[in-house]
Every structure is written in structure tokens, then in C-alpha cells.
## 1
Amino acid sequence: MNGAFLGVEQSLTGRRWVGPAPEDLRRAQALSQATGLPDPVALILARNGIAPEAAEAYLDPKLRDLMPDPSGFRDMDRATELLLDHLARGSRIAIFADYDVDGACSAAVLSDWLASLGRRPTIYVPDRIDEGYGPNVPAMEMLARDHPLIVCVDCGTLSHEPIAAARAAGAEVIVLDHHMGGETLPPAGAVVNPNRQDETSEHGYLCAAGVVFLFLVSLNRALRAQGKPQPDLIRLLDLVALATVADVAPLLGLNRALVRQGLKVMARRERPGLVALSDVARLRAAPAPYHLGFLLGPRINAGGRVGRADLGARLLTTADVAEAAALAADLDRLNEERRAIEADVLAEAMAQAEARGADGPLVWAAGAGWHAGVVGIVAARLKEAFGRPAVVIGVDGAEGKGSGRSVSGVDLGAAIATCAHEGLLLKGGGHRMAAGLTVASAMIEPAMERLAALLQRQGAGSMGRGDLAVDGLLSAGGATPELVETLETAGPFGASAPQPRFAFASMRVAHVRRFGDTHLGLTLSDGASRLSAVAFRAVDGPLGAVLEQGSGGAIHVAGRLEIDDWGGRRSARLRIEDAAPAA
């Protein structure tokens, strides 16, 4: 094993720093020599396995080059035929959507397309607490009474009984989803899902909004063949990008092009809902994946977690600026409520995980009365803290409802689906990076034991809990806006394409201040230059105690660089993720 980067065997957060692998450094050097790319960009491409001849296409992903033929997906042509037939007949159309960001964006994308043709669909979003995930029989029967066509987005692949009930009530059903499919499909007229078991598509990494977008490509192609006008699809990519990032879909292949183009569309600030949400989130810079995942996404999710489930979809579909501002303000307030609830659950879950031991293949916690709307976020926090797949379960009497988050290379959705198939869970499923489950309270322990065994087979137990990957060493003077912009050419960064992380050696804290309840704003110095920095949620953790000392000894810091446009002055800023004494 190579020595720890900068000699950091155990940082303030208990992690070992690991530098680039020797083979990546060799590949990066070859890439740089062959392409003329700057060394930091070449290293990112080498880390992602990009060959010199593929570098140009990777750095400039184009939809036209990466877009698959929608007809290659099972049931796509049938779904296209069904929807166009109902449009021709003047049928009322209902959209049944999941209550998360991907569901809201999927509903908004389809609704926007229909609105361009003069049709206003009904959007139905179930209540997380009262109805749970996915279609349910009462809701589907209610919608079927007035809507000859129901389109389920980001849900429906496992909803056999509710879809059968809708069909019995006289409605046709189309499913546009990406969650793992079972051995049999529900009795829908069409199920378009790159993750159904009989699917041969290589695009299982798409989120639901990505699947919906391909459906619209298919619809537009059919309209063009009929000599009819087609709605503009490019303007919908802001929503597809938001869903892709917020749903932690890997930024590979087609997803890179969707997000890259979507960020450009979002920067035009043409959608009232996203403009209002950006304003309440105080997003002043051009949007980046980080903003989608940590500023906009959580606020849209807040409606489904602790408020009214349909708020997100309503915000994303409204054309009224005043309504958008009111909805965004509601979601911002609900997000604050969600954060307070989350903090309480996180403290208990973290204590449980530590007591149980978090060096195995799975970190999990369960507690009575834990709010179902925050267990997924808390699972994500545990995953970040321990570098392991994590599951958090809120128990209500004889039943628990949980949510899980995975790490790169470990398919949590498949493992949870296996536990459900084996009868250890009442139900469960999802996708590689996130999944949900319902379990009898008496079965939580054996279910988690079995889940851990399945994840260990995928290699989850072999990961070093404390490893923090560092891409290289920079000086404070070398951290410039120009460097950040150069690095961004290798983006977008997100799941399966991590933003580069750099270390800064022997820095001292020249200035520190608190903002919010738990965040720190800092000025760091290496003696020659200064660097602006921020440490989110650091005050109550191991970082805060050292960083707030200010006049303490020299420290190594590691984190990710971003552009700070505050006050009209453009500079580089370090988002600190870890630190260690410079002994």
C-alpha cells in the first residue's frame, strides 16, 4: 500500500488520505502529452478511464452523439402509440408521480410537453405518510373515473394491484420508471423502464426524468412523421438535469450531456419556479451540480417529506411568477422544518451506528417515531460519515419504513429487492444508489443481517472506512478562478464522476466566523497567499473545534474548489471536507 497522502494516516474526521494511484498518474501524463490538456484535467480523465482518443468527446458531450434510439427500449413504441391515440381522442390524462425531486421533475417535464400541445394534465402526487410510495388502489381508481389514460412516472414498475384496479375501472396505464423491476410486470399498456429484467438497454443509469425525456423524443419523432409541429425539448433539460443530480444518478454517458445542457438552460432563468427557488436559496452564481443537489433539490423534496407532497410539482409547472414565489417560500420554510427534524434523528442514528460498529458492509439504524420524511437524508449522512451503504428505518408500531443510500460500485436496490423476494421485507426496491423498504418490526435485525451479507458479496465490506481520495496538492496562490473553470471542462461532477478534491499543506487560519447555525467561513493562509474557504456543518463536529481556534498550529486541509461571486468579486473558494494537523 502506498503511503498516506501528506502523511495523513488519521485526519480530524478519522480518515486516511489517499493520493492518485500510480497507474492514474502515468495515464494522466500520457493524456496530457497526447492532447495538450492541463495536468489537473488530464488526471480527472485518467481517473475516469478516458483514453486520449476519447478525450475530446468526453470534454464536450453532445446529445446528438449520445442519444440512443428510443425505440430500442422495450414498450417505448407502444407507449408512444398509446399516448398519441389518447391525444387524438381528446382523452383527459393524469400523471401519477413520486413525491421526490425525480418524480416532481418527471411530472413537470411531461406536463410541460402536453401543455405545449394545449393539453393540461392532472398531476397526482401521493402523500408520503398516508399513502406511501407509488400507486395505490384508491388513488388509481379515483383517477380512472375521469381520466382514460394514467401515466405513472418514477413509480409503477412493481404496482401490480393498483394498475390492475385502474384498468378494471376503465383507464389505460403507461409506466415510465427506472426502479428495479420484478420477475413479472404489472398489467399496464406499456412499461418503459431500462431496469426491467427483460431489458437489454445499456441506459439503466438514467433517472425517471431521463426516461421521460426519451419518451418525449419518441413522441416528437412520431409527430414529425405525421407532419405535425413538435414541442421544443431542449428547454425541458433544466428539469432533467435537476432530477438527474438530485436522484444521485451517475453522471456517465447520456447523463453527462443531459446535465451539461440542462445547466445552460437553467442559467437562462426562464422557468418561474426554478428562478423563485434559486432566489430563496440565495443561489447567486451560475448553477452547478452542487447547487442542484444541495440547494434546490432538498427544497423541492421538503414538500414531500414534511409538507404537502404536490408542492414541488406545482412549483415546477407554474407559469405565474407570483405563485412561484409563494410556493418557493413555502418550500424554503418546510426545508427548515425538515432540517430540524433531521438533526434530531441524525444524532440518534449516528449514536446507534457507532455503538453497533460501522466497519462492516452495512451501516444501519432504526428508531420508534423517526419521521419517514427524513430517514433517506439521514441514511445519506451515515453513508457519508462511514463510507458504507446505509439504511435508516422509522418504526411505527409493528412496522418500519426505511430508506437506504449506497456507495459507488454497490447495487443497494438489487440487494433490497432480493430481501423482499426472500420474505425478509414486506416490500422493497429502488435503484443502485437509493432504495426504500417496509419491514415488520420483529424482522428488522434478521433483514439487516441478510442485507449486509448480500452487500458484502458486492465488496462493500472491503472498503476502507477512513479513506479520503485526494487528487493532488495545490498552493493557495494556485487556487484561482481560472483553474476552477479549467477543471469544470471535465464536468459535470456528481455520482460516479466525483468533483476533484485537492489538499493544501501547512495552512493557518487567518480569520474565522460562524454563519447559520453550524457553518464556518474562513480565510486560510500559507504564508504567501490567502484562500477563502467554507466548512459546512462543521461547528459541532471534529473539524469545528480545530478550525475555530484560529490561531492554532498549521494544518493540512482537503476539499473541493468552487467559484465565489459574492459582492461581484470573482474568486476561488475551498469547500473544506477534512483537515489534519501538519505535524
## 2
Amino acid sequence: MDGAAIPLSTDAVGSGKVESAPASPHEQLEQSLELFFSKLKYLPQPDIDLLEAAYRFSEVAHEGQYRKSGEPYISHPLAVATILADWHLDPQVLMAALLHDVVEDTAVTKEELQELFGKPVAELVDGLSKLEKIEFQSHEEAQAENFRKMLLAMARDIRIILIKIADRLHNMQTLDAMRADKQRRIARETMDIYAPIANRIGLNAVYQSLQDLSFRYLHPNRYQVLSKAVKAARGNRRQLIDKILAALQTKLESAKLKFSVSGREKNLFSIYKKMQEKHLTFSEVLDIYGFRVVVEDEPSCYLTLGALHALYKPIPGKFKDYIAIPKANGYQSLHTTLFGPYGTPIEVQIRTKDMHRTAEDGIASHWMYKSTDGHMNEAHQRTHKWLQRLLDIQSESGDAAEFLEHIKVDLFPDEVYVFTPKGRILALPQGATPIDFAYAVHTDIGTHCVAARINYELMPLRTRLRSGDRVEIVTDNQAFPNPSWLSFVSTGKARSQIRHYLKTMQYNESVALGESLLEQAFDVLAPTRGDHPPEMWDRYLKEIGSKSKDEVLADIGLGKKLSMVVARALLKLSGIEAADMSGLPAIQLRGWESSALHYGKCCYPLPGDKIVGLVTKGQGLVVHMSDCHHVTNPEVNPENLVEIDWDPPSDKQYDVGLDVIAVNDRGVLAQVAAVVSDHNANIVNVHLEEFDQRPNFTYIRFLLQVQNRAQLEDIIRNLHAMQIVESIRRRRN
């Protein structure tokens, strides 16, 4: 049994100490080197000799290079290696840390490193090097591509992320030398990406340090004020903290438990975040201190919990059992909040020594040199599963920026824990819905999801899940993702899978439409041409630099290429003379609507209307009524106009605008809407306006969905028969 005092913050402002003259850069480097080798006692001498050789090689490679602070550049890789030595990582990782910038910043090659220090070290260093010789349009694009490269390297060797996190931690600790704008940019990137990754892999102490350091540069004034306030409160509340520590120790001793108890101070950013979220002043945040009890084994955790609840009353709803249900990063502890002396809330964490090691070092504890702890394999497996999920997202994201957006969504700080029908526990981010749950179980279940039962009751798919919910997904093989799902899903996996499906559907429909347009052009230009020789397409693709025939067809369908131009080029390559363009046969609309085929919002064409297609760049084929001003405009290129016609009737619903002027009586909207509904039309939205000139009338603007023109004419005829309706107009242009 032992008790520890609350640790003082290392960044406390205005300590008032008299400092001695600072050491010279050379002296500082010697001290850092001595500190590094003092931490290597867990390694055998041959490994230490290798590390010394790696240090000397890196020192020579970086000779003449200096950091912005004026220190020799070698001080940075040495500091990164020292952080990793604290985690007792293997020699390969420490060598890679010492050498991690030599390929990027010096003339040393990967092959040289492989020859001198072995392939694993060279691969680690390569995974840490930024992308070179590629020009990006923006910093965001470069950041996204570098992160994607790092992820792919992490998938090969998870140790890369440990080096990268240590590298970012030291960069944040020495950020003072940078310009203010660069400080903010690096701090924002750290807060958005690197701190959440540290949390996700269980590096709790590093996670909190990165948060505090980012907070310091993102909000320097708030950081200074809050830092001073915490320092003052530390002195003011010392007597209370000592009293609580003594009471906890006495109670646990009487329960005959083997334990250590210590006080801990919340990090500045978590205090600031609580003040922001709950709109509190600093004086209203009572729980800036917490206590941690470390015991021998798991049963002792629950015995300790019972003893503490007998000492101070627990606050209802403030107990969490992360031992029975660990967090996604492997974290385990019992959390409880008690009513302490004078009504002060006391937060207490209870855990075993193994749980404490995992809580502090996370996945790094798995690589502790010659670790034989079997349960650490679980941490390894969890991180591999997380990385695999990120790789799945990566493979389906269109570009690096979109991928990074998904990753930021996926790096969640808080989880809800829900159950499958078979009792399996899934961790999802706060705000997750049944759609997120379905994709977390399996991609196919998410793709074909139609309904969800939460705790045995059918609930909407946008319902927010809560910890403890039992979720069952109802699927239908004929169902597919709805674009509206993107407005409420929470996980990166669900978002990327939905977008991937929608893009694939768009592409396939664009290819089909492009093929129809091209065939139509061929029928006019060379009606007796016969089959297209394959070499015709091969030569054409080579000429224009496209990868495939489908890519060209999709471009035609999306309006990026004109079918007539492509048809003429293909026929020329085949040696077939093209006829003049005239009288194209009409394309039959099949009732499908996608980004490859749109219905004009200017005239809302319906089956039964005379229509024409306008090929518009980036939109593909847009269907208009034949007298719409968008197609009758003399500036329209005739080659962009395509004859189209309606297919036989289908059950598809089409949007149409209807404007009604009616007497401004009570219940007028309900009466008009009832007539519309009686004709099986769907009201998408409705907007009412009053006339300034005619106050007795109201202007009702409907957006309806009907099957065809005949159905709309029936609705208009019945509305005209109502005495309260003065006029009706189908909305055009």
C-alpha cells in the first residue's frame, strides 16, 4: 500500500524558480545521449552496440543540419528514440527512430540502410518518409496523401505508428520555434488526427499530452489563463485532496486489500472541453482531480468498488464497467463518481497492474522487449482489425481527401456498446445508427438493410443507438443504400461504403446511357457498318489516353464527350466513311434517374409530354420539354440535342411543380391537399405565400410526384371544380 501526491503540471506557468544558465547545444546533446543510453538497460549489449552505430550514422548524415530552434538536427531523432525507449520497444524500432529522417532529408538511400541495419529497419524508415517528388494542389491534399501512405505502411508493420506518434509528440514539445501560423496548422492536424490515433491505440498519457500541447497553440490565451487557474486551485484544494486520500487509504486497508492509491489531475484540455460543453466557469468545475486505485487482480477491483461505495455514496448514473466491456482500444477499468466531503464529486478509477500498463502504454505494451504476456496479443489483434477497417475504407474512397474525411469520422473519442442478437458486443461512436451497426457487422448487411429492431421494437434507421441496446437488422436482397443515409450515419466505414455503392451505380448507369447515345450516333453515321472491330477501340483508347471502353462510354453518358465526335473518330479509324448527321432515332427512356440522366427542374417533364434531351457537360443527358427555353435557345449547339421518347408506362414517380391561387379561408391548404392525395399523388413539399395586393387570396406552391401527365391533368381538373380555387398553373421555367 502506498499513497502518492497529486503530480504538479510540468507546464505550470510562472513558477518563480531561479534558473541556472542554460546549457550549450553541445552540452544539451551530450546530456540527451546519456539519458537515452541510460534507458536501454533492458537490452543486451550487442543490441546497444547496434543502436550506438545507428546513432553515429544518423549524426554524420545530419551533420550541418539544424532545427528552427538552432539545435543540431540529430537532437530530434534522439529525442524520438528516447520516448520509445521509455516504452521498452525493440532495437529495430529504436534504430528506425534514430534514422527516420535520413532518407527524406539527406543523401542516404533505403538500400544503404538495408545493407547496414537490415531490411526490417529500412522498411520502417521508408514507411515513415513523406511522399517525395509529387506536386499537390494544396496542403490538405498533400496531408491526406501522406496520411494514406502512412496507413498502408502501418498495415505492414504497426510499429510505424508508434514511431510516428513519438515523432509528433517531440515536434509538439518543440513547436515554439515555428511561426505562429505554422504552429496553429500543426496543432490542428495533431488535434484532429494524431491525438485521436494515440487514443485509439491506447496511448493514454501521450493522447492527453498531445491534446494539451495542441490546445496551447490553438488557444494560447485560454491555455495561459486556465493553466494559472489550475495551479492556484491546486494550492487551495490541497487540504481537501489530502483528506480524501487519507480516507481512501484507511478504508481500503480495513478491507485487507493490497493496493496503491494516487491522486491525478485532469489535463487542461479535458477541463476546457468540459467548460465548453456544459457552459461552466472554472470555479464550477469541481472534479478537476481524480483518484486511481491499482489492485492485484480483477476480483479485487469489485471488492474495492464495494468498499468505496460504503465510504462515500455513489452518484447515480456515473458508474461504468470497462472491465466487463473493454473500450475499443483495449482500455479496462472501473469508473465511479462519489459524493465526497462538502459535496465535492470524486472520480475514481479502479484497475489491476496489467490494466494500468495497457491504459498507459496501449498497444506499445505489446512490443515491450521480450514481453511474454499472453493477453497483449488481444491488443495487437484489435489494432490489426482497426487498420483493416481503415484499409477497406481507403480502397473505396475516391481520393485521399475523401479518405482523410472518413478517417477523421472514424477516430472517435467516445463509444456506445451495443449487442447483436447473438450477444456479441460492438463498439460504435457516439451518435451511431442502425445503419452504422449493420455495416459494422458486415458490408452486405449494410448494403441490403431495410429496417431495424432495437430492443425488439421496429425503429427508424436514423435512430441514435445507446449503450446496452440490442440491435437486429432486417435485410432484403432487392434493397440498396439510399443517398439520404449519408445525412445521418456516423462511422467512416458506413459513409465510405454508401458513397462507393452510389458512385458505382452512377458509373454503371453512365456507361449504359453512353452506349445508347453512341449506338444512336453509329446508326445515323454508318447504318450498314456491321460489328465494330476490337482493334478500332484499342487504337482509339491509345490515341486519347483512356484506360477502357467503359471509361469513354461513361464520359459520353455524363456529357464529358459528345457521342457524334466519338463515333466519327471510331469510324475513321475503321476506314468507314461517315454519313451526314440527320434524323437520329429517338432514345427510349427507361424511367431510371441518376447522375447520368436528369429531369430538368425548369420544366419538370412528365410521361405524355413532348420531350428532348440536352447533353450537358458534367451532368450528362438532361430531359426537357420540347418547348422549354433551355432547348429552344438559339445559342444551344444542335449537336448537343438528342431525340428521346418515353418508354411504355411504369410505376416511376416524377417531380412536377403546381401553383394554386385559392381563397384565404381557414383550412384551405387541407382541402386542396386532400384532393391531391385522393389522386394518389405524393406531396414532396408545399409553400404558402400571401398576396400584398389581394389579401383575401393565398398562393400555394406544391412540388408533387405523379406517374404521368394524365394523372396531373386529373388533379388539375378536380382542383378547378373547387369553389375556393381561383386559378391553377403548372410551373414552367
## 3
Amino acid sequence: MFSRPGRPTSTRDPDAPRPKRDPRQLMRLLAYARPYRVIFILGALATLISSGLNLVFPLLFGRLIDASFLKVGSTDTGPLDRTVLLLLGIFALSSLFGAAQSYLLSRVGAGVVADLRRSLFSHLLTLSPRFFGDHKTGDLTSRLTADVGTVQTVTSTALAQLAAQSVSLVGAVILLVLTSARLSLLTLAVIPLIIGTAIFIGRRIRRVSREVQDAVAAANANAEEAISGVRVVQSFTAEGVERHRYGQGIVVSFLAALRRARLQALMGGVMSFLTFGALAVVLWYGGRQVMAGSMTPGNLVTFLIYALQVGGTVAALTGIFNQFQEALGASSRIFELMDERSDLPAPAAPLPLARAEGRVEFRDVSFTYDGDSAFEGAAVLRHINVDVPAGQVVALVGPSGAGKTTFVNLIPRFWDVTGGSLRVDGQDVREYPLTDLRAQVGLVPQETLLFSGTVRENILYGRPDASPGEVEAAAKAANAHDFIRAFEHGYETVVGERGVKLSGGQRQRVAIARAILKDPRILILDEATSALDNESESLVQAALERLMQHRTTFVIAHRLSTIRNADRILVMNAGEVVEDGTHAELLARGGLYRDLYELQFRQEQEAQAELVQG
């Protein structure tokens, strides 16, 4: 569980190739803006108008200067007054359209990010347990939050600024040349140097930004593990280990963030020097032209404002370029997940399964978790041949690691067999749509997972369209109705994260109610009573017996005394079914089952004796 102290863990295989940060990923990202194209067009028009108006005011400002200083002693203030009123009108319109473009394009960005989050989360839910076994939950949630948040900046603010600054740059350059061609050549000579610097440093910023995102994701994954398992952490007094492990991940992300900050600061400093250095030279040369009488003071001021606009837009575009570099790293991590495909392929011609009878048949089934059937020695299951008629109750027993849980996990197709075939109602499960197959299977595990809503919401998870009466009927059948009604808020009681506000027996009975409401044809009970006290176990066992009626049921038994009445008992050892029969038949046969039963019986007798003596 724990990594070596002093070395941060990573969610990525260091030997695995990094995904290519293809700029086309940003085009995939912008494709999510297609539903908002009308709003985007309106925002773009507002941007054009606002940027165009901003290009007018330097010209008017220059005229204002000439009207003030070239007509010294004149009492006619009409031109001056008209110019000021026109300037105020230009400023008002520019502000109005600027606010409109900011809102409209930000609306597009927010919509794109919301759609992207929904799309990514929906895609994750389609992936198989194998994928989630290979990826930490914290890393996946980091991509849903931090990475998509980085993308949001680009698809909203940065996108709006890119449009506005591009229009300003083109317009300012044209007006710059029209105002003074000589000074324009002097000013524009520095632009290639600015762009080259931006590209050179920007590539390094993109690489470091990806390192920051990976480091933050790794730290989040460690934190998520520690928080979800806080009771284990505290019981082992391992707070220091987890604090050190998370701290190491934060240090890695901090150092990477510092490298990125240094590169961004270097770029900003170089851009600032080149921009304002060029303006100083322009002011020196333009001043000489004014002194020579070849340029008016107003024209010089107009030119300087346009030159400042050019410098400002180039600097802004450089910043936007940095944001796009960061977004490129984030989008590569997002689309890396979007491009993941489930290892449980959908059938080419799926067979509908509206209501199964419940017959389950294993035909020479073998399974390895690496998916390679060639290595028989690594197989978790070997040549399983079992035919379970509909409605039969089958118990699975055997030592730890015998393959019992893997056996039942193949039925809802959490994994695909690597050899042989698994059939439900005579058809290979790979021929059914996954949703149809899993709709027929109910699972009550040993460690019950409840969601952090109300009791009613957790029961409704079995069938969201059920009526309140059906919910209560399911709770009564699960022996849960009485303790639920005893709560102050009854069925509206919030159970807390993972059902932490309920006892183990209460959580298990809510899970049984959920399964009863689903009404599956095939039921899987994975040691559903092993962690309960005697009183809770009797209540849960009674609820389970109601649930098992008229269903094909697979029971993984912890206490062999609870499965005496099973129609059939499969004894597993080392991935094989070594015995098959009823409780009485297996005891009479004198094999592994009798050894396990007698061992457990002696342990229970000794425990009772110690309890009496105590």
C-alpha cells in the first residue's frame, strides 16, 4: 500500500511512452464549441466592433492634441469640444461591446467545459474494472477537475482575448503604417524577435506544464487513498507516512511549478524589454521628426499609442500562447482518457435480454487477469465446467485465493473469460448488450458501498422509477424498514459518505433492499454476512433468504454452517472446482469440504468454550 518514504508515487508507468501533445487535440477541444456556434458568432462580432472602436481613439486623441497645442491663443473651442464628445462616445460603445463579447465568449467556454466534463465522466463509466485497477481514482478525478479547469481558461477568457487581440494587432499595424511608414519599419523590426522568443520559451513551458499536471494528479491520488482509508491510516498511526508521501508529491509539483514560473517570468521580462525598448527608440526618432517639422505632435502621439497597442497585443498574444501551451498538456491528458477503449467489446449483433430465466453455464472456462490464456500457470480459473439450472442456490467454498470471487465476477461480465465460454440462458454472455446482462444480475458484496445521499436514494439505486410504496416494501423484505423508521428523518436520513452513519448490519440490509427492488434473475452474495455480529447476521440472513427465493443464486460462504441448505456446493481450490455436491454428500465423501468444515467447527467450538470460561 505504501510507497517507499522519500520517493513520490506516480500514477504513470515511467517506461510507458508519453502521449503525443498533438496541436490537433485543441481542435478536438474546440469541436465541443459547435453547439454554441451562434453565441460564438455573436461574441466574435462584438469583439470585432469593440476592437475596431479601440483603433479609432488614438487617431482622435492625436487630433485632440493638435487642436489644443497648434491653435494656441484661439478662442474657438468647437473642434476641441466635438473631438472630446466623439471620444467619450467611442469609449462608451467600445465598453458596451467589450462587455458583450466577454460574456458571450465566456458563456461558450463554460458550456464547452461542462459538456467536456459530462462526456469524460460518461466515458469513464463505460470502461471495465481492468482500467480502474490500472489507474488511481485521484488521478482520474484530477483530470476531471484540474485539467478540465485549465482547459476552461482557454475556451473562455483566452479564446475571447485571442480574437480581440488579433483584430487589434492587424488594425494597429495597418494604421501604424498609414501614420508613419518610416517609424513603422523601426517598430515592426522587433516583432519577429518577440515571436521567435515566444515560440522558443513556449515549448519549454508546455513541457513543464505537463509535468506540473502529472505531479498534482499523483499527489491527489495519494491524498484520495489516504482520505478514503483514513480509519486504516489512523489505526496504524500511519499519519506521518501519509503526510510524508503527500508532502513529497506536493514538493515535486511545487518544483515543477517553480520551473514553469521562471520560464514565464523570463518570457515576460524579455517581451517587456523588447517592447518598451523599441518604443523608446521610436520616441527618440519621432521627436527628431517633430523638431524638423515633418510630423505634428498629434501624429507622434497617435503613432505612439498605436505602437503601444501593437506592443500590448503582442505581449497579450504571448500570454495567450502560454495558456494554450498549458491547455495542450491538459487536453492531452483528457483525450488520453477519452481515447481509452473498454476491453469488453460490444457484440456486433447483440441479442436482447429482456428477462432472463437464470440458467448459468461455465463451459471449460479459464481466466487470467493479464488476458493471456497461453500462460496456464498464471490462470486464476482453470477449465471450469459447471451447469447451474435456473432457480438453483449454489454455494462456493474454498480456501482464500481459490478463485471464488473471480468466478462470480465473470457472470455480470466485469471480466471476459480468456478460455472457454460463459453462457446465460444458453447464449454466450458476450452476445448480450452489457446493460441487458447486468440488469439481470444483483450483487450484495461483503463490503457494502452506499452513496452519500439519503436512505431512499440508495434503495432507489436498484430501480430509480420505483414508487414510495415499492421502496418501503423492499425495505420491509430486507428487515430494514423498522430501523429506518426509527431515524428522525426516516427514509430521508442522509447516510454519509459510503454509508458511514449506518452500522455494518444496517448498511447490508439497505443493500439487500436495493437488490430486492432491482428484482434480478441472478443473484450474487459475496460473503454478505461475514463481517456482522450475531444479531445483525440473523436479520441479514433472514432478508437474504427472502431475496434468494425463485432466483439463481451464487453464495460465497464465509461460515460453512450458513450454507447447509444450499441446493449445491462447489468446492474450489487453486482455480479449479474440485468437489461438487450437497452438504451431506460432500461430508460423506471425505474430501476438502469435510476438512474445511471440521476445521471451522473445531474453531467455533473452541471460541465458544473460551467465551464460557471467560
## 4
Amino acid sequence: MKLYPIAAILLLCLSGCVTAPKTATTDAAARPGAGPVAAAGPVHAAPLTPVIPGGPLQPITPADLASSQDVAGMQVPADLWDRIRRGFKMNDLEGDLVRQQEQWYTSRPDYIQRMTERSSKYLFHIVEELERRNMPSELALLPFIESAFNPQAVSSARAAGMWQFMPATGTFFELKQNVFRDDRRDVLASTRAALDYLQKLYGMFGDWHLALAAYNWGEGSVGRAIARNQKLGLGTTYADLNMPNETRYYVPKLQAVKNIIAHPQNYNTELPLVENHPYFQSVRVTRDIDVELAARLANVQLEDFKALNPSMKRPVILAAGTPEILLPWDNAQVFERNFDAYTKGQFASWTAWSAPATMTVAEAARRTGMTENELRTANTIPPRMLIKGGSVLIVPRTPQQQNDVTSQVADHGQLNLAPEIVTRRTTVRAGRRETVASVARRYRVQPGEVASWNNVLASAVFKPGQQVVLFLPVRAHTVVRSVGRGATVRIPARAVKPVAQGRASVKVPARKHALPAKRR
């Protein structure tokens, strides 16, 4: 019996374990200058072939090695783009909208270059997760459409991160958002949540194009659009539904990017090399540690460190809330070695402080040993705002403070601010038998303040017509007041009435609040 090289057999076994089934794709939309294409008909998701990891390996026979073409097809992809192409499973969308988006992207080669280079940090992890869930690899390209792979991106509607989660939807998918971090920007957490959401939507609609429309527009909106068409006897595919322009262009954008990735040479595009290898690995953090120190111990540029750990909102990493950080693959061991060897003992120069009562920024700065400007900068506090009692702020950590921040504070700390009451000097004329106390009652201020402002005793009686000095709150044009989760209303100034102790009473119409079904 003829013996075959062991190395070749092992290569076949290994490549069979990691390569996703290759699915044929339509090339029509990928040919610039192709003739008009008819509007897309009913679109259904291609059936997903289950992958059973760790299944039994079949014996390799000489016939298996006879065809060099078959062997080449089973080789490990040369780069990650090739691996993504092999995992395409969605039906192609064709038409003028796709060609318009292709022209938009190809006319901006610098934009494509920046976007694809930025994606190189995150793509391998996303592709791994998609293959683990047996989902189409086209979905790895979705952050190109959502955020150009910028984890710090924030939309005008307050959607944040690579996958652009709204605050309420992020909370629904267990993405924590507090004073220390925003998991909508976290690479691992947001990818997990986005794929969970997409799987949920595909389960609802049974079609990837409709699932993507729901990801952009909301499942409730897509469901109602389908119901309207069913009632009118119309089709219910993505191409049939009446939807906003943003959603109408959403899937064609993804299709255009897919076409460029599939055939870059047809679009005079050169994709940067993205190795088919993990870019980062997760490293456990056991102590609160400054962001700058963590980057230094890992021998990583601060900018690169923040690109892999974009959820952090403060200059300190709290181990109780963020027990793991991401580091470039070759720097993980460097960090662990340097962390163990660090001799100063105090890894964090910042800690958390809870305001015991509502106070000015100046008072909070005095209590924490900071200047007002330092406290404002470290905690992003705008001018003319009060710090509400119970708010959590980042303040310097002294050598005497040995304990790290607790998990309760790290996971739930919030910074709540209220408009600072601005007063203006004014004078009024005293009436007959007018006293300090009666003036104070009329203008809702403290008698002691009236006495101090006019340099008289608290029991003094004013002469009729005497000028009385007062410092009264200035009414702003509008007051912005938080209502429910992630929503605000603007209330006319006439609804704001100055009262004692410098507070404002605001009447807000009662309204119901529910978790929005849609993402944006």
C-alpha cells in the first residue's frame, strides 16, 4: 500500500476543522458597468447548514488526495477577507440602489482604506463569533455601515459604539451604562449583544434582509409594515415594504460593501492585509488600575489601548466592574509579567467618591482636595450645574486608601446633575408695616438672607416705600428635565416656580414609558 505524507493528511484534517462551507454568490451586482438589473423579487435567507464542532473525523483515502483542486479548496484561508468570503450565506440584493452605493464607496478610496484598516482590530473576533453561531459572515461587515468600525461613534439619536445601540436597547441586552463605562462601546459585549439581537430578529422574520431592516428600523416597525402589506394583498419581502429612506438604503449599503470585499479588483480597490489570526486576547485585571499605567505595563500606545478598550469613560479601570481588558496578542504576556513585577503597590491613583448631599462643584472640590477645574475635567461636569446627593465622582486616591472600589459602585454608580440656580440683584419697595419676615415669605427666600442683604436685624421693620434689596432666581428660557430612560422634554420657563432652598418645582405631564421595541 502506498503511504501518503503525514503532514498533508494533518493539513487536511486541520483545514477541515476551521473552514466554513463555501456558498456561491451572485456576481451580477459586483460588475461595474453591468446593464440594468430588474428589481429584486422575493428574498429568503439561504438555509444555514449546521456545523458540529468536534465531530468524528473520517479516514482519508488516496481518492481524497487525488484532486489538487479539492485540496486547495480546503486550505486555511490566506487572510481574513478570504475567510469572510467563504462564509457568505445571504442571497444577493440587486438593483439601482446597490449600484448607487457601490459608486459612493468606490469614489472614496481614502474612506475605504481608513475604514478597512480600522476594522482589522475587531474583524477576527466577529468572524469567530459568527462561525460559532453558524450565522452569515456578511454580518461581520455590518459595522462598516453602522459606524465605519469606530467604537467611539455616537449618532445624533444617541446610538453608540461599533454596532450603534440605543441606551434602552443596550440595557435590554445587558450592556451596562454608568458613570465609569458604557458597554455599548465594549468590543466583546457589544458584539455579543448585536449578534444576539440579529439572531432574535432572524427568528422573528425568517429572512436576513428583513432582520437587518428591523435592526435599523425596529422590529415593531417592520412587523407593522408586513401586516399592512398582508392586509392589502401585497408582497412582504424587503423590496416590497414601505419604509423610511434610511432603512431603504440600509441593506443596499451592506450589499455594496459585500460586493467590494468579494471582488475588490473589479472596483479598483486594494484591501489591506488582515491576518487570519486573533488581533487581541483578554487579560484578567485583579486590582483597580489607571488606564495610562495599564497601557504602560503592556507596552502599548495609549491610543491603541483605548481602541481595544473603548467602553471606559474615566481614567481608571475598576476591577470589580471591568475584570478583563483587551490587549494586542503579543502584549498580553508583557502586561501580566510587568503587572506582577510592579513594586509600587498602588495601581490606581483614582477612586470613587459619593456626594453625601446636593452641593456645588466648588464644595465637592473642597471636600475631595481638588481644584474646581480638576474636578470638572475628571468628571465631565459642565458649568452652572449642581452635583446631586448620591452621585459618584472620580477623585484622587490617597496612599491611605487600600480598598478598591466595590462592585456595587463600579456597576451602578451614576453622576446626576441639576441646574444651578442663578440669582440676580433686584430691589422692591416695602409696604406698610412690612417686616423682614413678610418680605421673605412673599418672595420665598429665607428671612436671614433678607436681613443679610439689607444689613438689618431679622426682626427689623421696614419703612413704607423703603428700597429692599433681594437676590432672586433668574428664570431660564427652558429647563431640560430627564423623563424616563434616555428621553428628555423641554419645559417652558413659566412652568418653573422659584421656591425656598433654591429648588425648582417643575410640573411634567404624566406619560407612560416602555422599552422601545426598535433600536434607533
